[in-house]
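Lesson 9: reading folded outputs for more than one chain in a single document. The general rule is that every protein is listed as its sequence immediately followed by its structure tokens, and records are never interleaved. Here is the first one.
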Amino acid sequence: MLDPTTPVATLVLDHSECAAVFARHRIDYCCKGAKPLAAACQDLGLDVTAVVGELEAAIARRGPSTGQADPRTLSTREVIVKLIAPHHQYLHRGMPHLQSLAAKVARVHGDREPSLREVAQRFELLAETLRVHLAEEEALLFPALLEGRVADATPMLLDMRREHEQVGAMLAELRHAARDYRPPEWACTSYRTLLTELAALEADVLEHVHIENHVLMPRYVRATGAA
């Protein structure tokens, strides 16, 4: 049985299947990943025994190994190249399309469902925030880490953590505005596609942030004693 005193971030690192369960229950394993599972469940009014059961069922359903290495065993270069870079590429490709789609759906269905205008506005702000964040990492933080300039990288890592908290809050607000990405019965294909892709983007960003917060950052913040 999983230990409810284990931090939620550690559970995701040990068993990637846990991420989907946490996302379904809105358990933050990224910015609040140090929180024990029992405490996270208590904060949200969840039955920890039931959540542990869901987690263990997800782990039991795990398919054949994909051959992907535990990110904690990878070098910093490998983390950046093999794990983080694909997330950045996904966002660079997907955000412009989603901005256009959100604006279209809000324009067509906004009178019937006013919350769609809020969804479009919130995603516009999220996309701009993420673009700035990605650009800073790619131009400044990652080169500093790859070149071994730890003294330069450490304050940027701390800034990154604060930015992640901002992004996490924005994702939560977007999900709330989009009503947990559940479309109404009358929703057209574009509306349903928008919600599906927003949910996929959320999952990708959470995985990305999780790796940076709980794999990359501890290597340098702990080593230098930064808080």
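And here is the second record, again sequence then tokens.
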Amino acid sequence: MRSLYSYTQSRQLRTTPRYNIAPTQDIVTVMHDTDTHLDLLRWGLIPSWAKDASIGSRMINARAETLAEKASFRRLLHSKRCLIVADGFYEWAKESGSKSKTPMYIQMQDQAPFTFAGLWDTWKNPEGQQLRTCTIITTDANELMAPIHNRMPVILSPEEREQWLDPQIHDNQILLPLLKPYTASAMMVRAVSRMVNDPKHDSAELIA
């Protein structure tokens, strides 16, 4: 079992802290191609067969329940799995009696980094340039998330990360059971600044 820290030792990756990552921007991932390493992928999957890049903004998430059925994801489930690294994420809660929504910040009780389950692919534009992109897999909400939203990202435990990245595993009977709601008692949630609503704001002030 490898820690998130150990992945950083296999290949250098220079990044700065991010507090408000939006679709079509780069996110830190753990990948396994020739080896297991940290890398940057653009958030919003563009399948290799896509005619243009615009589809990426509509494929930021993939439902766990239909991965094995949809052509966009079935091949990737067997051969191009990744982890998306985070130490928190946002979801918006409806306010009673109002059309407004409050941004909520969700993280682990110990505030440690964690990983979402993801899929990635390589797309080549008409000029022949390659672009690597990814999508985050979602599942039913756990007890913590349910009052906020009916879906949540799939968060993998350290043991599950190893299975998810293992290039020798292609069996849906092993992979799909990993894509379940995370233990609610290990997580916490709190309201944060509405500045999160504007992706131009990206500083620690958002979660202060």
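What the second record shows: The radius of gyration is 17 Å.
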